[in-house]
């Protein structure tokens, strides 16, 4: 029998680089969906996004969608959005965002960010060895969006697997 795991829907996200605005120029919304697969009558597998249940099971895949509505009458440039991988999950390596968006990752809980693959150093038998972090080691991610036009919505998606 599979154990049910409680997973908080709340994911932390932060706006950086918009301090010059007196009021928040973006309306941010985060939604989580359970990714399921179904087989159609022709035998083809299809993914479906369903409402996130209150409890999820180990192995479940969750897709988070961060929607950012530009409330301003002008375009916003160089917008940075951040997300933390929810506790009890690991990043799958799957994300998508508007064209021209750069993505950087952190393996140290958001202290530093780098484009993947991330290199790190460990000491084994007294020697420094460089290793490459795998996506399941990522703790945070940031999207660097070049532009969100006036009244447009930019959506960034990413997936995690429940431990």
What does this structure look like?
The structure is a single chain. Helix content is 0%, strand content 56%. Strand 3 (26-39) and strand 4 (45-51) form a beta hairpin. The protein is mainly beta and 163 residues long. The strands form 4 sheets. It has a 5-stranded antiparallel beta sheet with strand order 4-3-6-13-8, with no helix packed on it. It has a single domain (5-104, 140-162), classed as Immunoglobulin-like, CATH 2.60.40. The chain starts with a strand and ends with a strand.
What's the topology here?
Layout: E1 5-6, E2 13-16, E3 26-39, E4 45-51, E5 55-56, E6 61-70, E7 76-84, E8 89-96, E9 102-106, E10 119-124, E11 127-132, E12 140-148, E13 153-162
Antiparallel strand pairs: 1-5, 2-7, 3-4, 3-6, 6-13, 7-12, 8-13, 9-12, 10-11
In short:
The chain is an all-beta fold and 163 residues long.
Number of strands: 13
Residue fraction in strands: over 45%
Mean pLDDT figure: 88
Number of H/I helices: 0
- Look at the helices and sheets and give the structural class: mainly beta
What profile does the largest beta sheet have?
5 strands, antiparallel
- Shape descriptor reads globular
Q: What number of domains?
A: 1
Radius of gyration of CA atoms, rounded to a whole number? 18 Å
The appropriate CATH architecture is Sandwich
The CATH class is identified as: Mainly Beta
Poorly predicted regions: 6-22
Roughly how many Å apart are the termini? 15 Å
CATH topology: Immunoglobulin-like
